[in-house]
Write a structure and sequence with these properties.
Elements lengths: L1 H12 L6 H6 L16 E4 L12 H15 L1 H6 L7 E5 L6 H12 L3 E4 L1 H4 L6 H15 L3 E4 L16 H15 L6 E6 L7 H6 L2 E4 L5 H11 L4 H15 L4 H17 L4 H12 L5 H14 L3 H8 L3 H14 L1
Parallel strand pairs: 2-5, 2-6, 3-4, 4-5
Antiparallel strand pairs: 1-3
């Protein structure tokens, strides 16, 4: 208990993030570089800003909020001889918000985001890659930051993989040693699209694991409203239709489709609805045949004629009429 009280006193007496004393006391460590290419081994983002509020499942949001609360209550944790979570790994398919979550955490914590640059770290010189990785991790330990190791599977592959060379296997050893020695004041976030490729020993080093799922229908609907911009009337009119068309895509794919339509409307000087019609044309073939009639019915509800809907979707007018009667009778 006495040790916990002493740690709590140190935390209370330490200068705040905004104080001049902290700014003077903290060394400004030079960003590490590859000795041969002279490329920076990390990308540094000073307290990243967020353009939109991220959309996550309740389980993901709860885990991220837990990390924030632990940092806010670290004095209480110290009194109990505990430290906040130091290491966390994000898993999930591409485009579901793993990197965005790291930016969000850095933003909420008011810390710079340091991102490992794999293209610079992976040196062609034998033995240099491990040294580069160690330089990055030592640098991140020396500054008050959040370190993101994106594409973790590239540097922490299973050591029993017979196809990997010894240099890459040594990377895993370097990483494990550094994670074991990670300071409580820092936060190490790793992300991977391929958790099955990770070395089991790397899995065990992370104190928290957060799985990011593909967006469900409600999340897709929310993302559409966000990416369409401030036009609430348009978002309300097109929400059901676009949700049907885009369910099954990741957040980044949904944003790409809608942003492409918005750009097209601007450069061609036409209403956004016209560009959304083109989006329907691009996506309609990816839907099961039974769903295409529902898309046609949704376009009718927006105000298009059966002829226009047929031209956009390729669905026969008879199928459109049946789907329209079916959806209206279900209301």
């Amino acid at each position: 208990a006495r040790l916990g009280d002493q740690l709590a006193d140190l935390l209370r007496e330490s200068p705040t993030r905004e104080s001049p004393l902290r700014k003077q006391a903290e060394p400004v460590a030079p960003v590490p570089v590859d000795l041969d290419s002279r490329l920076h081994l990390v990308r540094l983002d000073h307290i990243p800003a967020l353009d939109i509020e991220p959309i996550w499942s309740p389980a993901v949001r709860s885990s991220l909020e837990q990390l924030i609360h632990e940092r806010e209550r670290q004095v209480d944790l110290a009194r109990a001889n505990l430290a906040p979570t130091r290491t966390v790994v994000f898993t999930g398919p591409p485009g579901v918000g793993k990197s965005l979550a790291a930016r969000w955490l850095a933003h909420r914590l008011g810390r710079p985001l340091v991102v490992l640059d794999l293209s610079a770290v992976m040196s062609s010189f034998l033995g240099r890659t491990g040294a580069n990785l160690r330089h990055v991790l030592d640098y991140a330990k020396s500054v008050d930051c959040l370190l993101l190791l994106d594409e973790l599977d590239a540097i922490a592959k299973r050591r029993d993989d017979i196809h990997e060379v010894g240099e890459l296997k040594r990377l895993v050893t370097v990483l494990l040693q550094e994670i074991d020695d990670w300071p409580a004041v820092g936060l190490l976030v790793a992300a991977t699209n391929h958790p099955d490729l990770l070395d089991p020993a790397a899995w065990r080093r992370f104190e928290m694991k957060v799985e990011f799922p593909m967006p469900n229908e409600a999340a897709v609907r929310q993302a559409i409203s966000t990416f369409l911009g401030p036009n609430d009337a348009l978002a309300n009119a097109w929400s059901d239709l676009l949700t049907t068309l885009l369910t099954g895509l990741s957040f980044s794919d949904i944003e790409r489709e809608i942003s492409a339509a918005r750009r097209d409307a601007v450069v061609r000087g036409r209403p956004l609805e016209a560009s959304l019609h083109d989006l329907v044309r691009r996506r309609i073939d990816a839907l099961p045949r039974a769903e295409r009639g529902n898309v046609g019915a949704a376009l009718i509800d927006i105000g298009l004629s059966q002829r226009q809907v047929h031209e956009i979707t390729g669905v026969s007018r008879d199928t459109i009429r049946k789907a329209t009667r079916r959806t209206r009778s279900a209301v």
